[in-house]
Amino acid sequence: MEKVRVGIIGCGMITARRHAPEYTDNPHSEVVALYDFDQERAKELAAGYGAKVYATVEELIADPEIDAVSICSPNSTHAPYSIMALEAGKHVLCEKPMALELADTRKMMEAAEKAGKILMIGHNQRLLPTHRKARELLQSGMIGNILSIQSNFRHRGPEYWSVNRSNSTWFFDKNKAHFGALGDLGAHKLDIIRFLTNDEVEDICCETVTRDKRYPDGRLIDLEDNASAIFHMKSGVFGTMNVSWTNYGEEDNSTIIYGDKGVMKIFGDFADDIVVELRDDTRVKYQVGAISTNQKQLKSGIIDDFVDSIITGRQPTVTGKDGHNTLAVIVAGKKSAAERRWLQVEY
Ligand SMILES: NC(=O)c1ccc[n+]([C@@H]2O[C@H](COP(=O)([O-])OP(=O)(O)OC[C@H]3O[C@@H](n4cnc5c(N)ncnc54)[C@H](O)[C@@H]3O)[C@@H](O)[C@H]2O)c1
After folding, report:
1. DSSP run (H or E) holding 81
2. What's this model's pTM, rounded to 2 decimal places?
3. CA 73 to ligand 1 center in whole angstroms
């Protein structure tokens, strides 16, 4: 079988740490093309993969030899590049958040439908074996009916991760990022909440603040560096989510689910991946696997899932609809914070 030939747009950290190595590790795919706004960066990465560097996105997308494209450039480029690639007949794996607005996610899904190509979104946390195990245990009824859920993602900020290790990173640029911690980290947590509960968010009340991140000239950034949300799922499950770019201690990527028969803690106890505490005081521990941190990246599995969905024609584990529904909650959360009130999530 011929390999899936992949072009990657954006050659920053997520490409260097995840997309490029995971396509190369997969026996059914290879990285053949790269593009970055910064041509030197693309050339540097290309040297390690034997890939061709393109001078423009248009040229890369027009290459008939390319079957699939990963979009790993700043958030503002996700929708335009994805649509361009889908219209040219490529399968697309687009990083999170899927887009800036719901009008764009709809256009992306339409373009995929029309082209008959796969559109997958980079919500990698649902590919994590630990989250999959947790979902299986929840569905088996181990902790009974879910009453509430709490999920956190707090690290020291994207300027400690981005290829541009400074406060001039695009993550702090309102035009390129559009969302602060709410879109960047909330995209992971809201998707995992949807995945674990197998439910959608009904309404949300969110607060966003900027406490510590500053531009090089000393002004606080125009985007939130912290966000907290409370929400109800359609089933009535009550949820809370805290995301932060100002946790200068150990990274926190935990989720706790409270059921009427017990509690499930995922990455809440640093010694164990899942701990279930039942009403009768039994404690069950499952060591399934760790979660990536900004310092230590582990294989995400998202690339393998994308490649397999291209080869077999099955749906990817994270669909365009998943990206859309997760973005709908982020958009409602941002609006709720701006208007300081509860809002129904509009899908
Ligand atoms: N799924 C995850 O866990 C995860 C983790 C990190 C980042 N991401 C997402 O991946 C995307 C890239 O983030 P990153 O961490 O690699 O950022 P980064 O700052 O490390 O790299 C961004 C790269 O994009 C390039 N770029 C800027 N404008 C461009 C344009 N118009 N066209 C092409 N390239 C352009 C930059 O030169 C840079 O090389 C973002 O959308 C981010 O949200 C996802």
Report:
1. helix 78-87
2. 0.98
3. 4
